[in-house]
Design brief:
The structure holds 2 protein chains of 2 kinds. Chain A is mostly helical. Chain A has 2 domains: 58 residues; 213 residues, Orthogonal Bundle (MetI-like fold). Chain A contains 13 helices and no strands. The longest helix of chain A has 38 residues. Chain A starts with a helix and ends with a helix. In chain B, strand 1 and strand 2 form a beta hairpin. A two-stranded antiparallel ribbon of chain B has the order 1-2. By secondary structure, chain B is mainly alpha-helical. Chain B contains 13 helices and 2 strands; from the N terminus they run ααββααααααααααα. The chains are: A mainly alpha, B mainly alpha. At the A-B interface, helix 1, helix 3, helix 4, helix 5 and helix 6 of A face helix 2, helix 4, helix 5, helix 6 and helix 7 of B.
Chain lengths: 282, 289
């Protein structure tokens, strides 16, 4: 009798687990799927009421317009370029800084770390106006350089913290052995620490890549030139123009999310470990 | 003597560039924001010193307090949805179920989408003329609805879109926290005859709370600072119903070009962040202790 009851209970738990997860999947994927079907619809099936669920026939007009007959490919290039560059530079800076804080004997080490954490938590929205004033005064407004520097300054403190955590948890014995063999602290970093820390570096780099790729505020504030524009601002411009062309907008949005989704599916573990180890969002 | 100097030059070279960059692009701008907030401005020109007039006009007006109210409700309602939903999905995903990886991948995907894309997707799904939700609403209630024209509906919409975009973070943190709970605890509970429900309430949840509380503080800050999602989805409207302090700061600066007033908003946001961050750091320290 007891056994029977527990079996029923087990079944209920199983069934409700799958039911709740299925509902969550529908809730999560519906807006994306709706955008996806819209992007494949012919023009006369998009602005109609009642809306239809599936495109009939499936057409690629919106994608062709976005990819070949608009400046969207320029925006894509700019976003890829800025994301790649920012991730490289901030990983280089943050790995050095993180290692120095983890292993070097530095006066006021705790204070420096606290200051870095605080700086890392200053929100971008509070910095936009002064950075705008500074970039206009220095003539750097509307240049790739200033956007790159702002992105790097934005991401580096948090990456330093993540990598500091990573380096300080690494077994110190390997480094001590290297030091006994006559390696300087600097050589130990390059020859021993960097090679064994690849997974930590990749995690924090991926995390930053998502933030830069997805950024709107900095890209919007510091560029007005068409040839410097990045994807997020290009998407936004679709809704400010007169009469939104939803098919093209959804096609552009889908194109813009594909790189991140592919990256995420391929390197899910690294993403999750980066996020969990930092538990810090910019 | 040589031993202590060994670290001096490398320290400067390793830490220097980061500290310099942070000083130039974060520390100095904050000082400039504060200085600008004490001046009258026309467009990008800084005019006469006016003391705390901008702050008085923000904190002494009903508009200013409305923005604060909007920020607080946006943060609170977002957390109210995101935290239970994230914990529930995280706990379920941690069970030994079929197609776990597939479920996990799909459910975490919104997190990699930008606020811009999130806003655009929801703007289209909720479109009052051509959207599926408007259709279902009409079929269910017989009346039409415009989610961006009513104050209540717009407020619900921004919170909902935000929840969609950010609940995966709670899922990830929950999953990470569950992995480090020793299996023996659950076994012991089972041996002692504890039901699943009491195991959840008395073992799983208490062990999750430290991790969750840190991320809740972090997300509160994140939601408070959020501009893009709201700006793209509703632009703060209708009638400023979705204008939070952060949206106001951005629009005052870059839609209306009141640099001085915008700087005062920025500095208020900065101060709120400092206060919240100190809670966060205290929570982190508590966790490590």
């Amino acid at each position: 009798m007891k056994q029977r009851k527990s079996l029923d209970w087990n079944f209920t738990v199983e069934a409700s687990t799958y039911t709740i997860l299925a509902i969550a999947v529908i809730f999560t994927s519906f807006p994306i799927l709706w955008g996806l079907t819209t992007s494949f619809k012919p023009l006369d099936q998009i602005n109609v009421f009642p809306p239809t669920l599936f495109p009939k026939p499936v057409v690629f007009d919106s994608y062709i317009k976005v990819l070949f007959r608009s400046n969207f490919k320029v925006y894509l290039f700019n976003s890829i370029f800025m994301t790649g560059f920012t991730v490289l530079v901030s990983t280089a800076l943050a790995s050095h800084a993180g290692y120095a804080l983890a292993r070097f004997k530095i006066p006021h080490r705790k204070n420096i770390m606290f200051a870095l954490l605080m700086m890392g938590m200053v929100p971008i929205v509070a910095l936009l106006i002064p950075l705008y004033l500074l970039s206009v005064q220095t003539g750097l407004y509307n240049t790739r350089l200033v956007i790159l520097l702002i992105y790097v300054a934005w991401r580096t403190p948090i990456m330093t913290w993540i990598l500091y955590g990573f380096f300080s948890q690494a077994p110190i014995e390997i480094e001590e052995a290297a030091r006994i063999d006559g390696c300087t602290p600097v050589a130990t970093f390059y020859k021993i620490m960097l090679p064994i820390s690849q997974s930590g570096l990749v995690s924090s780099a991926l995390l930053s890549a998502v933030f830069v790729w997805n950024d709107f505020l900095i890209a919007f504030t510091f560029t007005t030139k068409e040839n410097l524009r990045m994807v997020s601002v290009g998407l936004y411009n679709y809704i400010t123009q007169y009469g939104i062309i939803w098919g093209e907008l959804m096609a552009a949005a889908i194109v813009s999310i594909i790189p991140m989704i592919v990256l995420f599916i391929l390197m899910q573990r690294k993403f999750v470990s980066g996020l969990a180890s930092g538990a810090v969002k910019g | 003597m040589k031993k202590s100097n060994e670290f001096l030059l490398p320290s400067i070279l390793f830490l220097g560039p980061t500290l310099l960059l942070v000083t130039l692009f974060i520390l100095i701008p904050i000082v400039i924001a504060f200085r600008t907030s004490l001046h009258a401005t026309t467009y990008a020109n800084i005019d006469a010193f006016i003391g705390f007039e901008h702050y008085k006009s923000i904190l002494g007006s009903s508009d200013g307090w409305m923005d604060i109210f909007n920020s607080v409700t946006y943060v609170m309602f977002s957390l109210t949805i995101v935290v239970p939903l994230g914990i529930l999905v995280g706990v379920l995903l941690n069970r030994k179920i079929r197609a776990r990886t597939l479920f996990r991948t799909i459910l975490i995907i919104p997190w990699v989408l930008s606020q811009t894309v999130t806003a655009l997707l929801w703007k289209w799904v909720l479109n009052s003329s051509f959207g599926p939700i408007a259709l279902w609403w009409q079929q269910l209630t017989g009346s039409t609805i415009d989610f961006f024209n009513s104050e209540i509906a717009a407020r619900v919409t921004v919170v909902f879109a935000n929840a969609w975009n950010t609940y995966p973070i709670i899922v990830i943190i929950t999953l990470a926290a569950l992995q480090i709970i020793p299996e023996e605890l659950f076994e012991a509970a089972k041996v002692d005859g504890a039901s699943r429900r009491s195991t959840f309430w008395h073992i799983t949840l208490p062990l999750l709370i430290p991790a969750i509380s840190t991320i809740v503080i972090m997300q509160s800050i994140e939601y408070f600072n959020m501009v893009t999602l709201i700006y793209v989805l509703t632009a703060g409207g209708p009638f400023n119903a979705t204008t939070t302090l952060s949206v106001r700061a951005f629009r005052t600066g870059f839609d209306f070009w009141h640099i001085g007033l915008g700087s005062a908003f920025s500095f208020i946001i900065f101060m709120v962040n400092i206060i919240f961050s100190s809670f966060y750091i205290r929570a982190l320290k508590g966790k490590n202790a």
